[in-house]
Design brief:
With about 300 residues, this protein is an alpha/beta fold. It folds into two domains: about 240 residues, Alpha-Beta Complex (Spore Coat Polysaccharide Biosynthesis Protein SpsA, Chain A); about 40 residues, no CATH class. Helices cover about 30% and strands about 20% of the residues. The protein has eleven helices and 15 strands. The strands form four sheets. It has a seven-stranded mixed sheet, with helices on both faces. A three-stranded mixed sheet has the order 5-15-14. Helix 3 crosses helix 7 and helix 7 packs across helix 9. The mean pLDDT is about 95.
């Protein structure tokens, strides 16, 4: 059995190199692939390739938070792996600000023994009770077709946003850019096709990853709908896999995140004070880390993993 780690990155080489070194040291037989967003301005994909001495591809479109482009690199990675005939059984999806919290041989042993096909967070996006702790979050994100509004409309949009809770025909969303959503007469979701949401970061068997990538490549009605929603990166894979009925899925992405006190969906930066919680044995990865914020926690994790 072979694991592939795909790292989606927009950072400078230093922190990504730290993550890559930890992966290689803990699991030398794994394949590591990096998709680098050159629009962040740190360096080119070629410079990243030379710095890391491994396979790196340039993300085709700048990854924008709240847009389909944030998830598109994952499908590009599946395409890259298949096109080059890279053998792998599991695809672990990481960001450049993730880091292992246990020796990865334990992850390999668990994946080799499991009867599950995927480990990912998923829940009914339209349910009134959900992990977002916001009753209308799913309907606001995935129940409207959104379009970008011009910059000059900012003042008017802030005024219109006050009416979001008073009607259901239009929704103004200002968290990830200025966007106006219109609710159509019918949604693509209903009996037999539920809308499921969760975390962008997943651990999937190759069959799961390739199934989702193929559905996106086909660009059917459901994918076109998601392209006009808010945060499709947190719903596309979940909706495709759960509705397919083909796969045995575990509602657990096996990583530590802490959204306490966070705003707009950003998990807080982890520090050395979090070390006991990170290494309690339940999680294989954690996020987010920042070398400039607290590099000591990565030193501790390196020692722990080693």
């Amino acid at each position: 059995m072979r694991i592939c780690y795909f790292i989606q990155n927009h950072l400078a080489p230093a922190q990504v190199a730290r993550l890559v070194a930890a992966l290689r040291r803990s699991q030398p037989d794994a394949f590591v692939l990096v998709g680098h967003d050159e629009s962040a301005g740190w360096c080119s994909a070629e410079q990243m390739r030379r710095a890391l001495e491994l396979d790196v591809f340039a993300i085709r479109e700048p990854a924008r938070r709240g847009y389909f482009s944030l998830l598109q690199p994952y499908f590009e990675a599946v395409e890259w792996l298949g096109g080059r005939g890279v053998p792998y059984d599991w695809l672990v999806y990481l960001s450049g600000q993730d880091f292992p919290t246990l020796p990865l041989r334990r992850l390999a042993e668990m994946l080799a023994a499991t009867d599950r096909d995927g480990f990912l967070r998923f829940w009914d996006a339209f349910a009134p009770v959900n992990p977002w702790n916001r009753r209308r979050q799913g309907k606001c994100r995935y129940g409207f077709r959104y379009a970008d509004a011009p910059r000059w409309a900012a003042a008017g949009l802030r005024l219109l946003r006050r009416f979001n809770g008073l009607q259901t025909l239009m929704h103004v969303h200002l968290v990830y850019g200025q966007r106006i959503g219109v609710r159509p007469r019918t949604l693509p979701f209903g009996p037999g096709l539920g809308c499921y949401a969760g975390s962008q970061w997943t651990i999937l068997r190759r069959a799961c990853a390739e199934y989702a990538a193929e559905e996106v490549r086909r660009d059917g009605e459901l994918i076109r709908w998601f392209r006009s929603t808010i945060c499709p990166d947190e719903a596309v894979v979940q909706t495709l896999l759960v509705n397919s009925g083909r796969f045995r899925l575990q509602d657990d992405h096996l990583r530590f995140e802490d959204f306490t006190g966070s705003r707009n969906g950003h998990p807080r930066l982890l520090t050395v004070d979090d070390f006991p919680a990170l290494t309690g044995g339940r999680y294989f990865f954690a996020r987010k880390f920042d070398l400039q914020h607290d590099g000591a926690v990565l030193d501790r994790l390196d020692e722990w993993i080693g």
